Fold these 3 entries.
Entry 1:
Amino acid sequence: MFQLGKTIVSEDIIEKDFVCNLSACKGACCVDGEAGAPLDKEEAKILEEIYPKVKPFLRKEGIAVIEKEGTWVTSEWGELETPLLDGKDCAYVIFDEKKTALCGIEEAYNSGAIDWKKPVSCHLYPIRVKDYSEFSAVNYHKWEICDDACTLGKELQVPVYKFVKQALVRKFGQNWYDELEKVAEKHLKTL
């Protein structure tokens, strides 16, 4: 672990390789698991505001859940997250013709209907950020459904932090990312 500003960062994001391989996993991270995508308060507000523009991109099952439970829910641990369909699929998940899970929010963004890509927790994956009162912990989340992404990342030699560069800049800013790159270069020379 090392400190960058008000973050404590795991070396795994530098040492591990990762490139999403949707053709292999079919977007399993959006349909497996025990919780929806983590949200902060600002993102919950954004979801409420953009929902009318995102709705046309969603499946009827997802719309039904969102209209029953809301555009976001509070978990039993008091954390904000996207609602789930039958305790599995994120309510915002859609599927393409190959049965690959995609984000309906991101599809609305890609079409120009909205200017917000998706929750930053989704954009950052496989990095998870846990906020504490004095700092944020930035960790690599290893999940077996992403084994193909690890294999592809290793083949292409793309470390996790480079794969999620855009999301890290979105979350922490360009200066933070520039410092991360400097730390990564030094760290990799010592391996």
Note: Strands lie at 2-4, 7-9, 73-74, 80-81, 84-85, 89-90, 93-95, 101-103, 127-131, 136-140.
Entry 2:
Amino acid sequence: MTGQNKKKNRKQAVFSGTGKDVQVMENQVTLRFAVPDDAEAIRSIYEPYVLNTAVTSEYYVPTVEEFRARITRTLERYPYIVALKDGQIIGYIYASPLSPRHAYSWAAETSIYIRQNMRRTGAGSRLYKALSAICMKQHVLNLYARIAFADPEDEFLVNASARFHQAIGFSKAAEFHRVFHKFGRWYNAIWMEKLLGGHPEGTMPEVIPFPQLQLTDEDLKAY
């Protein structure tokens, strides 16, 4: 076998998983469930969005303690997932209630942020794929994303998030005009939705709180 063929076969082994002596590539994006101790890393991702963009309507960066509380609170009912590359957290996604009223139990709001220099790694679509699958296991049928929208785009906000959500199957459901003010400017907000399953009439099964699914990080390898 020539050196070129050996190299080709070795490369194939990496992607097929058949090479026993080949380790997983270090730069591969992996997923795991968030824990409260991820608060500082997650805050570092979110901070530039708060300070330098209108992507989020928050004016002030929450403290690490607040992020710990948010992670803990979310995991009591919904999944909170992080994406890692080279061992570092590069993005995160979580679900939250669309409304506190029981009739809205089968709908959830999503939030996703990717470290700004890591936005073309495929992490976003993988995070959404995993979140969607777990929400379906919980009996959630509708996902909603509330997205800042610039008309026209400017240096604080381009509409990349809306385009990303459309590419992964969301569609625009509503738009609120000049609804929030940041950096001395008014911005719109749009709601985008994705239906995960059918909507049968009659009694619906209750939404299963995330901890009751007893999922582990191993379950995320499927996504």
Note: The longest strand covers residues 171-182.
Entry 3:
Amino acid sequence: MMDALLHFDHELFLKIHRGLSNGFFDWLMPLMRNRYFWTPLYLFIVVFCIKEYKKKGFYIIGMILLTFAIGDMFSSRLIKPFVARIRPCNDPALVHDIIHRVPCGSGYSFPSAHATNHFAIAVFLIVLFYERWKPVLPLGLAWAFIISFAQIYVGVHYPIDTLAGAILGTTVGLLTAFTYKKFIQHRI
């Protein structure tokens, strides 16, 4: 069963990484996974929270940072070293199949910290703002998905890595949003 799942994961990786290869994606996908590309969005979130929510906005920003920290700790510090899955771009079995679009990195692959962190933040923001601003749901999920998809396209993660990161991130985002709503939001 596990061998079949890993085989499927490798095949799906190659369908995305090589099969969808085109000049536009070669330009776009490295940008989508670059943290500096998203700086205007992060700045907008900070300004929006402070402008719209005043003192409460600082708590929201603090919770976003805590959400990121928890997601990153679980994915990068706890799970990755334990599982120790080699990144596809470092896998000797794929050496002739990899298109080097970004530097590979020396860390492990499972789960994707990019997917974990961005799904965690997206879900946290969705839970907090959905009642007031419904478009946060599709926009937040699309944002986290495109970053996760880009990780596969550029060759640094397998699809299962990003799926596991999305599940872990969603869980972290739900837990921190619940914590904020239950213990912080009404006390400010």
Note: The CA atoms of residues 55 and 103 lie 41 Å apart.
